[in-house]
Design brief:
By secondary structure, the chain is mostly helical. The protein contains 11 helices and 2 strands; from the N terminus they run E-E-H-H-H-H-H-H-H-H-H-H-H. It has a two-stranded antiparallel ribbon with strand order 1-2.
Length: about 280
């Protein structure tokens, strides 16, 4: 049965004339052209975007990003003012006792592993000759508790906020893939994997390098406001004509495999570590 005849959750899925075909049948050229149109729409919706995690220094953003694993930005932003007041730098945090640190970050969840990761990272940064954060992806992911997503968050912020002394692209800037980016990439037919690292690689084949820092941030904004995990507002979505999942109410029938229904487009943590500090 063709994609236009599939039904999702008992609802008929009818693909309008001129709508994008199943991504499995779309040429790379057509996908690239569609991506360009998506980029333009999102740029119009969000001409100016800021990093949702509050910070004043690269170190503070690193700490906030580690804390954001399996936790909302809103909760992290409530915790970090007191945390940064007591421990404003890596050197200060490196001397923090474990128990008080755990108490400060308790509400972010998984506070035992996060506290240990923060202390290990702070001590390693404090021990560097320049006592500062490394500025390349390869060096950042070598820090305890820092995964590829967190490193990309830092490099993206350096690109967007124009951090002095940072050259994000020379440092190996990639594409941040969090829950929202993974979900939207699959719904928009720009990626097919549930593995964030593979999603990043798939996006890098179609997203222009000069969009790598800001495009995922716009996707995050859009994913929170319109293309939500449950009950996305497909009928009123400004990307509807560009989204192959739109006629399927946000589901992705082209990702169906033998013996299972369409993959839940909101699922993106299949490869996440049980220790959230190691999955950032």
């Amino acid at each position: 049965m063709g994609d236009s005849q599939r039904s999702v959750k008992g609802r008929p899925s009818v693909v309008p004339a001129g709508h994008p075909p199943s991504p499995r049948r779309e040429s790379k050229r057509a996908r690239s052209q569609r991506l360009q149109a998506i980029v333009q729409v999102l740029a119009q919706l969000y001409p100016t975007v800021t990093i949702p995690l509050r910070h004043q220094t690269p170190w503070q953003l690193l700490v906030a990003t580690i804390l954001s694993a399996q936790c909302t930005d809103a909760t992290v932003n409530k915790v970090t003012p007191d945390l940064f007041s007591r421990y404003p730098s890596a050197q200060a945090l490196a001397q923090a006792p474990l128990a008080p640190l755990e108490a400060l970050i308790h509400s972010t969840g998984f506070f035992h592993s996060k506290a240990r990761a923060l202390l290990a990272t702070a001590r390693q940064v404090a021990a560097r000759p320049d006592r500062d954060l490394p500025r390349t992806l390869a060096e950042l992911v070598a820090l305890p508790g820092v995964g590829r997503k967190t490193a990309n968050v830092l490099l993206s912020a350096a690109e967007i906020e124009k951090w002095p002394g940072w050259d994000a692209r020379a440092g190996g800037l990639g594409i941040v893939v969090d829950t929202h980016v993974g979900r939207l990439a699959r719904r928009l037919g720009l990626a097919f994997s549930l593995d964030p690292t593979k999603v990043e690689a798939e996006l890098q084949t179609v997203v222009p390098p000069d969009e790598w820092a800001i495009f995922p941030l716009r996707l995050i904004y859009f994913g929170r406001q319109t293309c939500t995990s449950r009950n996305p507002d497909c009928p009123h979505c400004p990307l509807l004509s560009l989204c192959p999942a739109g006629p399927h109410h946000g589901e992705t029938p082209w990702l169906a495999t033998r013996g299972r229904t369409a993959v839940r487009a909101g699922s993106s943590r299949s490869s996440s570590s049980p220790n959230p500090a190691n999955s950032t």
